[in-house]
Amino acid sequence: MDDRRIIILLAGVIGILLAGSLASFVLSRRAHSEAMQTTVRNLESRVKAWWVMVAIFAAAFLLGPTVTLILFALTSFYCLREMITLTPTRPADHRAVATAFYVFIPLQYWLIFDEWQTVFAIAIPVYAFLLLPVLTVLAGETDHFLERTAKLQWGLMLTVYCISHAPALLILDIPGHEGENFLWLFFLIAVVQLSDVLQYVFGKLFGRHKVAPRISPAKTWEGLIGGGLSAALVGAGLFWITPFSPLQAGGMALAIVVAGFCGGLVLSAIKRSLGAKDWGTMIEGHGGALDRMDSVTFAAPIFFHLTNYFFVP
Amino acid sequence: MIAAARLVLIALTRFLVGGHARWVGSEPTFEQRIYFANHGSHLDTIVLWAALPDALRSETSPVAARDYWGKGRLRRFVALDILGCVLVERQAPADSDPLAPLTAALAEGRSLILFPEGTRGDGSSIMPFKSGLYNLANTHPGVQLIPVFLDNLARAFPKGAYVPAPISCAARFGAPLRLRQGEERQAFLTRAREAVATLGRPGEV
């Protein structure tokens, strides 16, 4: 692994975050109107979340792939916990819910650790899909059976299966790029997060036309196009940490942006159908991990499979 | 050793079910109190105990049924050494006072955690309260009565389950309740039960 690149990256990110923290500090002293204060609070919580992410990333990089897998497994755990908390499961679902947490989260991440890619790809979509409804049906309650089973499977797919594709990048073998996998994971997360924040900034500055006013009122076409294209440009500029050419890196970043946008939209809709505004509201003041991971859930599998299909011989 | 076991139990509770306190109608203070809550899971005792701030936790004893928490070495260790429970007989002989251990703990100045339903429900509704709460309110007018609603616990660890599922739970602490002048036993118990139930419908608080 070329250590200098990761150091340059971390230094760059820390520089950007310092600027972000400084900006939110200055703005918080100047914000007088109610709307402005809300915006600043939003900025502050984002910057704080990124500091945590960067700290986790640095720790994961320093301590190796096993720790990275454990950290992502914990992320899946918290996201699934948030989702199940908001989903009205019943005592009769307990066995299936417990199995989803205690069997399928460790199994999915162990399969990555073991580099058993074929089973990694089917464990949840095939085996959990078939096993969990059996556990539920044994409890003998048929009321809303289809909804209850579907909700658990959706939660497991989004928060465990999809998110696990991000650290699964660590097991792809691309000749000539051995030992660089961690940088691709960085590429994915950096593009997703940049795209989120740039869409937000462009939306605030130029946003007029809402994409889906009933689902996510903050998302505008101006934000999507301006923020998305800028994030893709930054992605192209990061080609030196990937196995891609600058053009390919830009294309990959664009795919990540589009998938991430769709993920944000779909998870907002799920959240609304469960009657919550934030994944954290029922868990007042806590949680909200899924609010930060919503774009990753869609972007990770797409990026993983595009890379695997086009670049792994 | 006991202090370490306490920390482990609290850390495990936070990790699996969260169980944070929401003080919606009262504040955590050093006043002597009886916290009374709905009961849907064996975890209730641990979660409500863990939700209290450190300083209050050591002053507070959960009231637990001897026929469950008094059985087996591990349960006894958790109930007596870690949680500092007061054990009561649910089927007390007719000539004895089942509330005697509670009265003794109150006399020492300790606060109590009480589940007046007497047994676990299925989490969908709160069962009628037993008389103990009324009797204690009557004999200890100086002790504050705090209703608590434990949210989601019957989903996280329902009757008959072997392991708790990770579902976020919360303990909502409501405003103190007082026994009114000359209030009948049944009227008071209904009002106390309603106070807990209201906390379970957060839109109304």
From TrEMBL, chain A:
Keyword tags = Membrane, Nucleotidyltransferase, Transferase, Transmembrane, Transmembrane helix
Q: Does the keyword Membrane apply?
A: yes
Q: Which Pfam families match?
A: CTP_transf_1
Regions crossing the membrane: 7-29, 49-75, 96-113, 119-140, 152-170, 182-202, 223-241, 247-270
**One Gene Ontology cellular component:** plasma membrane
Write out the GO MF terms: nucleotidyltransferase activity
Query: A single GO BP annotation from the record?
Result: peptidoglycan-based cell wall biogenesis
Protein name (Swiss-Prot/TrEMBL): Phosphatidate cytidylyltransferase
Q: Which organism is it from?
A: Jiella pacifica
High-level lineage: Bacteria, Pseudomonadati, Pseudomonadota, Alphaproteobacteria, Hyphomicrobiales
Automatic annotation (TrEMBL), chain B:
Fetch the Pfam families from UniProt. Acyltransferase (PF01553)
The keyword 4Fe-4S is annotated on this UniProt entry: no
Pathway involvement?
Lipid metabolism
Q: Which InterPro entries match?
A: Plipid/glycerol_acylTrfase (IPR002123)
**Record-level Gene Ontology MF annotations:** 1-acylglycerol-3-phosphate O-acyltransferase activity
Alphabetic keyword roster: Acyltransferase, Transferase
Q: Which organism is it from?
A: Jiella pacifica
State the protein's name.
Answer: 1-acyl-sn-glycerol-3-phosphate acyltransferase
Phospholipid/glycerol acyltransferase domain location? 33-153
Q: Which domain of life is it from?
A: Bacteria
Q: Does the keyword Zinc apply?
A: no
One example of a Gene Ontology biological process annotation: phosphatidic acid biosynthetic process
